[in-house]
Amino acid sequence: xxxxxxxxxxxxxxxxxxxTASVLEAMEPYLRPGRIAVPTPGPTQVLIKVGLASIxxxxxxxxxxxxxxxxxxxxxxxxxxxxxVVASGDEAYPKSLIGKRVAFxxxxxxxxxxxxxxxxxxxxxIPLLDTVRDEDGAAMxxxxxxxxxxxxxxxxxxxxxxxxxxxxxxxxxxxxxxAREVGFRPIVTVRRNDQIASLKELGAAHxxxxxxxxxxxxxxxxxxxxxxxIFLDAVTxxxxxxxxxxxxxxxxxxxxGRLDPEPTIILEPGQMIFQHKxxxxxxxxxxxxxxxxxxxxxxxxxxxRFSDGRWSTDVTAIVPIAEAMARIPAELAxxxxxxxxxx
Amino acid sequence: xxxxxxxxxxxxxxxxxxxTASVLEAMEPYLRPGRIAVPTPGPTQVLIKVGLASIxxxxxxxxxxxxxxxxxxxxxxxxxxxxxVVASGDEAYPKSLIGKRVAFxxxxxxxxxxxxxxxxxxxxxIPLLDTVRDEDGAAMxxxxxxxxxxxxxxxxxxxxxxxxxxxxxxxxxxxxxxAREVGFRPIVTVRRNDQIASLKELGAAHxxxxxxxxxxxxxxxxxxxxxxxIFLDAVTxxxxxxxxxxxxxxxxxxxxGRLDPEPTIILEPGQMIFQHKxxxxxxxxxxxxxxxxxxxxxxxxxxxRFSDGRWSTDVTAIVPIAEAMARIPAELAxxxxxxxxxx
Lengths: 343, 343
Hints:
Chain A is of the alpha/beta class. Chain A contains twelve helices and 16 strands. Chain A is globular and about 60 Å long.
């Protein structure tokens, strides 16, 4: 075991003072490549030699100081990944994971996955079936659990139609897959016509290009016909305001991302009063605290879906850590797929 | 019984196309004085010779086409009042009300109280104790039930501190009275320093002048010290946005009015995600549908409070119907009290 490792280290500390959009416009203000001591696992933890690390929208919000937990300056970033357990704490369960390939989430430990080695609680590791690809394993916790949790909200509401912005994101695609299986009708927005066909094939009932000149008219027509109640929103800003305004009585705007930094306006506050509309948020960490019993089955379900091909992660790029500073913002700006880091 | 009566009649029909603020800037676009046939009560209804009619913010929203039910052109406006029952339908309970002084709400009947005679469902009439003044009787349903219902929200949330905009409104004063009795701590905003002392005396824990240069700093200090969770908001716009943004985790912004037509911005949508904040609305009609069992006790409680002096309606003006077109907007613009119409 080496004593030092390469990693992408956080430049900022705590939270950012002013809110910005959750787009990574550049690496340099937030991250620097560096060397740091390989950490030692505590009694309930394991040390993982990272195979692939995921770059999620939540990671981007975190490195920019916009996420729900504070940054620790000089620590590696990265909330999840896949790798092999190479060391562990003294407890029996962590020990039993040594040598195993696992999907892992770093959460509380504050040692990120954007490094050659990462710490994770053994309880936050999922030993992987051989049938699960590394690319799926590295993206098996944050997006899949978010998809299952948010689709629970749709299912509980009961209306088959629902709306999602950022329709071509990996998360939206997972939800479209879930919806198709039970006959629900996702209405999704995208920014490019070439995204429409594949999302319809995947199971979206309607795919609307938010840049089209007739977008608002088409949106109102579709909403009138489908009567969606739940709006899962990664974007905010004027697009989301327009959608929420057009939705029917008892609509619920569930915000889980902030891709657009433009002001987010409640166009007609009277709708909150007379149409009983609601605005709320979704955060996976909060969901995991509230629905502990749902977590285990959800993780199992995610793994089964990736094993049998019902779910699959579209890969935009796998970027070696040495090229990360130069390439990641541009790779993240590409549509349709996920970007991974190979330490 | 005359066959015709004087009334203030609605000019608009249905809903307004574009949203405006709930301030009555002029009468002429919305109302005209006129004569109309005295209506005949249906089997479950009573005909009331109106003594005083209330002018509530909800009436203003209604005549402007901004309320949750459509206008009927040529009908009298007015949601509540006090008067004497002079005729009734054939059923036993309506008949039993003849000759009685009642507080009434016109609701479903669509015949307003801004007229010499008004129709109401007998079930929406409250026979008044002699100890209740006409001014209190005419304002006994809409505001008092709203106060009791919204204070239920505060009480259920459990935090003793809560925030209200339009702190000097009759509604806010009723809620301050309720809060004082159970040791809750209202934090209210006003627009004039001369409103501060009387509201503090009434039971407000903090009265902040939103026009003061140090308003934002004081607001943040008070919120930090008191940790209010519920925000009962009649105003929306920049003031409400600022308050909601400064509130702590799990804050709930309950919109029940729209006094400010400026855009209502969610300053930091990330708070919906990571701080579990919510935005919702309150509408008395919806509450009455949802909480039928609470309605009877609430009406009784309201009458007792007005009888024993725990509640009292501050009167700005009682305007004869002949002077209504000329005087009402200016009277409504005065602070601190309620405006009544005498048909």
